[in-house]
Amino acid sequence: MSTPKISVTIPCYNCGDTVGAALESLLAQTMADFEVVAVDDGSTDTTAGVLAEYAGRDSRIRVVTSLHGGVVTAANTALATARGMYLARMDADDLALPNRLAAQSRLLDSDPSLGLVGCRVRFGGCREQSAGYAHYVDWTNTLLTPESIQLHRFVEFPVPNPSIMFRRECLDVHGGYRDGDFPEDYDLLLRWLEGGVVMAKVDEDLLVWNDPPSRLSRNHPRYDVEAFYRIKTEYLARWLERNNPHHPCVHILGAGRVTRKRADLLLDYGITFAAYYDIDPRKIGHVVHGIEVRDRSTIPAPGEGFCIPYVASRGARGDIISFLESRGLALGRDYIPAA
Description:
By secondary structure, this protein is α/β, with parallel strands linked by helices. It folds into 2 domains: 6-223, Spore Coat Polysaccharide Biosynthesis Protein SpsA, Chain A; 244-326, Rossmann fold. Helices cover 35% and strands 22% of the residues. The chain has 12 helices and 13 strands. The protein has helices spanning 19-27, 47-57, 71-81, 100-110, 131-140, 146-151, 168-174, 184-194, 216-219, 225-243, 257-263, 314-326; strands at residues 6-12, 34-41, 61-66, 86-89, 95-96, 114-123, 165-167, 198-209, 249-253, 272-278, 287-288, 291-295, 307-309. The strands form 2 sheets. The chain has an 8-stranded mixed β-sheet, sandwiched between helices. Strands 11-12-10-9-13 form a 5-stranded mixed β-sheet.
């Protein structure tokens, strides 16, 4: 049996209603040199039967059956079984558009410096009922270059996990998904970026990212907001140690209770705060746990301090970035957004 160029890995658990459509979208790809490694993670619905049917129809679909161990175990089992030079991820409730595998592999072929590529994705849910998710998709679709992905990695997940394709060497060097009380996909991305993996995206819609109520990221505590902040803080602290010329001192933009709670996670890593900054006159002048809340207009000039915007609301976040840029502060040199 010849080795395929691409292995598409799909963890499957009780996805009998959706995995057939996902497989159909892969069989409709414009390139044929791929295999699908579908790991049935101990499903109790019709998943096994659907997978067996498709494996019988097309030899490129390989099914691995295991006891239920969770998505991390299933994803790593799929990666360990995959034979391709390039490894792609897909979820069993998403759809690959016809040019996905061709376009992503072409980008990896064309630029040896790239270790992982994503793509623009289409939001497959209800924009009214899932407005936050839809806005996240719109935001991540603006991050296409290695620089934009690197410098926005601490805002949110800059490359959706079901859209990734990467070189096998990245897995060999930096390892696969880790299990724990954190989002394993965000951890993998941050770990690989920290390890020097260069990432970019195809500037084309190549995946429909569906948002069903049963999506794991909506129902498992490892994907709640606080879990994201815990794991990003670990990596952000190490990034600051390497990139903040004023280490360990930083200036925190945002002084609300929730903002402080999330920023204060940095204190456990030895980071110190010069001040919190805000525009609310009711907060300015207060001292919280020994740290003063100052007017935003008093932030340090370029080169005189390092700022971290920690306000998460979309409108406020954009306003803060515009303010910092208007004062001459440069992304990555004078500030890094973390919310």
